[in-house]
Amino acid sequence: MTLPIPAIDLREGKVVRLFKGDYAQQTTFAFEPEALAARYADDGATWLHVVDLDGARSGHFENLSTIAGIASGGRLRVQAGGGIRDEEGVRRLLDAGVERVVVGSVAIRDPEAVAAWIGRYGCHRIVLALDTRFRDGLWKLPSAGWTADEVHTLDDLVPWYEAAGARHLLCTDIDRDGTMSGPNLALYRHLATLAPGLDVQASGGVKSLADVTDLSLQGVAGIILGRSLLEGAFGLRDAIATADKANATC
Asked: I need a labelling partner for 123 at 20 to 30 A (CA). Which of 9, 107, 116, 231 fits?
């Protein structure tokens, strides 16, 4: 079953979107984060994806109070990340009411530590954010808010984490992120072959309900929807109905 998941990216307490992960190419939207979360709940969302973009780059939570406010509303199950570099960061998000903690840079730089967290907190509490861009024939893994390439590649880490007991993987094609140019279906086919036991959340480029159908038929567990909802390309209710229809045909 594929679930559309609305996303809220936070920078200085505001709802924003970046273009291809570039902090210099930011669009700021006139929505209050908690009001937007409530609107998504009204439209049928059960999960919400929240990113502290300031924290993703600095390594320190800078929007934690906003994330906690959204989680405390109790209407949405929240997965959130940005700025987690150690286990204390995991605990702080869980204590703030977040149900799933999304780990990115540290999942690339210190897999052994993240595998230990999966063992300690459970595979359903940790989401690996292995965001990627294709360069020189490899799916590379930038970190620190997508500003620095790491040694490990996607093909290195995904099977390793599956063997280590991970369950949830969020994978963004950075070159599609915020572009509304369509998702990279080939990437998600590749991941299904690479680690069939993982529940993959697709992110980046979704522009239409046809994209929601294509990703649902691909068998991804979740579809992260950011700019497409904020700019009104389609509504969340329609996205959920479209995914349900595609799920029924699988």
From this structure: 9
Largest Cα–Cα distance in the chain? 45
Residue with tokens 């969302």: 45
Catalytic entry in 9, 52, 54, 177? 9
Is-catalytic flag, 131?
yes
Domain ranges of the chain: 3-249
- Using one digit for the tens of pLDDT, what is the confidence trace for 118-150? 999 999 999 999 999 999 899 999 876 666 667
Tell me the pLDDT band of 105, cut-offs 50, 70 and 90. Answer: confident
Contact, 155 vs 185, CB < 8 A? no
Active site residue 177: no
For helices 236-249 and 209-218, give the axis angle rounded to 10 degrees: 40
From the list 52, 54, 131, 173, the catalytic residue is: 131
3-249 under CATH 1.10.357.10, yes or no: no
C-alpha to C-alpha distance for 224 and 203, rounded to whole angstroms = 5
The predicted pLDDT at position 188 comes to 97
